[in-house]
Amino acid sequence: MNSSRPTRRRHLPTSPFPPPSAAPPVQQFEPSDQVTHDKYGLGRVVEVEAGGAVVVDFGSGKVRIPAPYAKLFKL
Fold first, then answer.
1. H or E, element range at 44
2. For each of the chain's 75 residues, which pLDDT tens digit applies?
3. Can you give the pLDDT at residue 54?
4. Peptide bond into 68 cis (omega under 30)
5. HSE of 51, CA atoms in CB hemisphere, 13 A
6. d(CA 61, CA 5)
7. What are the Basic residues biased-composition ranges (predicted)?
8. pTM (whole model) above 0.70
C-alpha cells in the first residue's frame, strides 16, 4: 500500500535551489492562557498534558486539542 503522506526529499548540496525552510517551532501553552480556535472560538487553557496536548475550556465545553495545535492561537 502507498502512504498518503508525502515523503520529505533530501536536499543535495549541489542543488541550485535553496534548502527547504525549517519547520516552525511548536507553540507552548500555559494554564490560564487565553486562546482562540477557528472552530470553537475564544477559550482558556485549563490543562497542559505531558504528551503535548492541551485541554481548553471554550465555555460550551472542554476540548482536548493535540499538538501541533491546528487552528489554535494564543492571544
1. strand 41-48
2. 565 666 677 888 899 998 888 776 778 899 999 999 999 999 999 999 988 899 999 999 999 999 888 889 999
3. 95
4. yes
5. 6
6. 32
7. 1-12
8. no
State the Cα–Cα distance between residues 41 and 69, nearest whole angstrom: 14
Residue with cell 487553557: 45
* Residue 30, amino acid: E
Three cell numbers, residue 32: 490560564
Residue 26's contacts (CB-CB under 8 Å, 6 or more residues apart) are 52, 67, 68, 69
Burial string for 4-14 (b: 16+ CB within 10 Å, else e) reads eeeeeeeeeee
C-alpha to C-alpha distance for 47 and 25, rounded to whole angstroms: 20
Alpha carbons 35 and 64: distance in angstroms, whole number: 13
The predicted pLDDT at position 36 comes to: 96
